[in-house]
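In the previous chapter we treated chains in isolation. Here, by contrast, the input contains two separate entities that must be folded as one system, with a combined length of 555 residues.
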Amino acid sequence: MLCVLLVLALVLQDWLVGVLDVPVLRTASTVFVAVCVQALPFLVLGVLISGAIAAFIPASALRRALPKRTALAVPVAGVAGVALPGCECASVPVSRRLMQQGVAPAVALTFLLAAPAVNPIVLVATAVAFPNAPMMVPARFVGALLTAIVMGWLWTRFGKAEWIAERALRRLPDHDGTSRWVVFAETARHDLVDAGGFLVLGGVFAAAFNVLVPQAWLETLGGQIVLAVVVLSLLAVVLALCSEADAFVAASMSALPLLPRLVFLVVGPAVDVKLIALQAGAFGKKFAARFAPATFVVAIASALAAGAVFL
Amino acid sequence: MRRETQNILLVLLGGALLKLALTGTYLRYVKESLQPWLVVTGATMVVLALVSIVRDIRGGQGDPNGVEHSAIEHAGHEHGTSRSPWMLLLPVLAVFLISPPALGADTVNRSDRNAAQEANASNGFAALPSDEVVPLSIGEFVTRTAWDDSGSLNDRTVKLTGFVVRKDGDVFVARLTISCCAADASPVKAKMVGQNFDALPTDQWIEATGRVVPGSATKETAFVPTFTVSQVVPIVTPEDTYEG
């Protein structure tokens, strides 16, 4: 099958290159490769951490490290997100692994949402991008943390385990006899193949939206703050920028007030097309269909709340 | 998808990343600072796949789901249901067969924005070198024309490097700036006047020497300065096409 595809692609190479020689498609294919190339190092970091958790950290140690009551463990997991310096692609395999090791889903999901937005690299990038508005940094930190914690508590209260695909929750068997390094390599490899496909799918969508969404929208928004918030939050979802770059893009939208740009920065790392694809892959479609829209609403509300306090 | 196919895909994808990183093509898509990470990532993928292949050959001997690792494998997913790994083939094909070019005029024309930031102006402007011709990045050129009230560019001859962009009958010299990858590219550009530029094809890289029209980058012109060009020289495309 693979051989057939590869031979077919080689034979059709000239035809492919010819078809793609239209400016729009050329731009889209460049953006597609760029999104994949940019995200893969973070995904690999994520699957290595995930493999290490599976191989070297016994489930009992994780349970001891977190408060017993889920309601308390949620904010702890949110703050723990500071420790994973990466973009959203890294946190999906890690949080899935945490679930498989017996961490409550609500706690793992809080970590999933918090890690890409509150880590030091992202905060420094935000500070560099907004030298004239230093309050953007605490506003973003609080907005993102709030989103993660509220979603964790919502899941504790309303979440149903059956929404999450069974494969994501199945406990790893105790590795009797198998070397820990083998477990590490196999888990990392398996997570990489699994999540990688969905990452690529997300990259296709991000590239398509990148050329399809007219940038001119932005320039006409000017003073209409409500409209600006709505448009920028949707833009954050479809553009799927990495959380280390989005601050610079937000900074360049200098025609807009700070508040909608803050919404852009809080929504982007929590929910975007690339992340939805990864979540559907890791936790199942039923999960993604509920979790992504809920996160979208909560993130906008959290960003507005943080904006009201800091900006 | 079969385990063997997955491993081959991983080797291909890791190889694609290594090819990008080692040939310098990666500069079309991401920033220079990502290069070591791309090498490590590509190598990690290849190693993970090789470890798995070697274990299959040693342990399985024709039984790829041999007893030894089946427990781990089965813990992760249901066999035969996952088709998503096929998507990994897309970037592999894109890199090896199509090798998309760096972004150019098409991207510049998707936005009316000129990305030079007001923020940069607050730190004050350093004095320009006293050379007769001052090479400047287009970003700095735009920022200085728009926000430097001291007029440090007036009556100075500067040299800008960029590619040719056409829109609505005007001709621009433009660059794209990226902060992470090509997905976040924003354009910076200056309108060229003073000559007939018909001979220059769109996307042609040039060095343009000339002077700014003072006060031409205002809100009304979307902060695109006008640049009176005295000399324009076509050049070969630089390896890193992005600015800043």
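The mean pLDDT of chain A is 86. Chain A touches chain B through 81 residues (CB under 8 Å). Compare these points with the single-chain example from earlier in the chapter.
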